[in-house]
Amino acid sequence: MPLVTSLKKFVRASAAGRVALLPLRLRLGVAQTGPDLLRLLRWLRTSREHTNLTYDLDALNREYLAFFLSACLGITVEEVRGYLDEVEQDHRLAEHIRQSVRNGPARAVSDEVARYGRRLGWYAIVRARKPRLVVETGVDKGLGSCVIAAALEMNAREGAPGECMCLDINPAAGYLITGAYANFARMIVGDSIESLKNITTLIDVFISDSDHSASHEAAEYEVIAPKLSPKSVLVSDNAHVTPCLAEFAERTSRRFLYFQEQPQNHWFRGAGIGIAF
Ligand SMILES: C[S@@+](CC[C@H](N)C(=O)[O-])C[C@H]1O[C@@H](n2cnc3c(N)ncnc32)[C@H](O)[C@@H]1O
Asked: Do 119 and 34 lie in a common domain?
């Protein structure tokens, strides 16, 4: 047996061989995790957030989001890219977020810069589908709600009016939903299940982002099942954690796909968009 092959066998098979490989394996792991550690240190210094983290999408990930939505919505990738550009270039929206966070009740624990992450996808869905009714469960400060409201405002200008019902159990939630955005997004305070039971209009786009337990998420889909319009789209902001929307899709003969976020320059691994259509 040639010497090199024997050495390789020794390294693979013996405990001494595993020890000999440690520096190489450590270097491999540090090359992967080291940049994340640096991002974490930078984030500790520059951000104030401790929950519902915000970030931009990595450029390649944003491009894949466009292809993903093109497949889900049955529109061209150019059209999706157009919507993503539109919201990213909406300086009025970004300035509204900046000013409202700066003057808002949670300014000590919030970042002023508008970073939409996967909410770019929510914008494109609303622009493409021109819904009459969007329902978002779980509002927090209202970043997603304002993004949806901005899309609804553009739709209205194009002759396709619609509104968003924003459901949150916390009476202090939704403080970003003011000004022009309040014309298109309406806060409803209470447990999302109870609020959903009271909706009497057909829902075109449903976004689940409230209590992230599997039981609560699944219960939301059950309540809205008879209230969905024929061409409705459902989005789970929890699909990286539970299969609830995938299961609902299968049970109700819908298709399901999942997009995984890749945050840009952030240690967080991202959430995603689960979509049933
Ligand atoms: C992840 S945040 C929502 C983030 C928001 N969609 C966004 O775009 O930034 C979750 C929100 O769900 C709300 N929530 C938790 N349990 C709830 C429930 N049972 N009913 C309604 N809202 C609930 C919380 O108060 C919190 O504001």
From this structure: no
Distance CA 42, CA 233 (A): 37
pLDDT band of 1, cuts 50, 70, 90: low
Q: Which tokens belong to 63?
A: 């491009």
| Pair 228, 142 in one domain | yes
Give per-residue pLDDT as tens, 157-207. Answer: 999 999 999 999 999 999 999 999 999 999 999 999 999 999 999 999 999
Q: Which domain holds residue 14?
A: 3-44
Structurally, the chain folds into a number of domains equal to 2
The verdict on residue 131 lying in a domain is: yes
**For ligand 1, what atom is nearest to the CA of residue 122?**
8
Residue 272, classed as helix, strand or coil, is strand
DSSP code at position 263: B
CA–centroid distance, 138 to ligand 1, in Å, is 3
How far apart are alpha carbons 47 and 39 in whole angstroms? Answer: 11
How do strand 203-208 and strand 185-189 relate by DSSP bridges? unpaired
**173 in contact with ligand 1, CB cutoff 6 A:** yes
Going from the Cα of 213 to the center of ligand 1, the distance in angstroms, rounded, reads 11
C-alpha of residue 51 to centroid of ligand 1, in Å? 11
In a domain, 79, yes or no: no
Same domain? 33 vs 133: no
What are 83-118's pLDDT values in tens digits?
Answer: 999 999 999 999 999 999 999 999 999 999 999 999
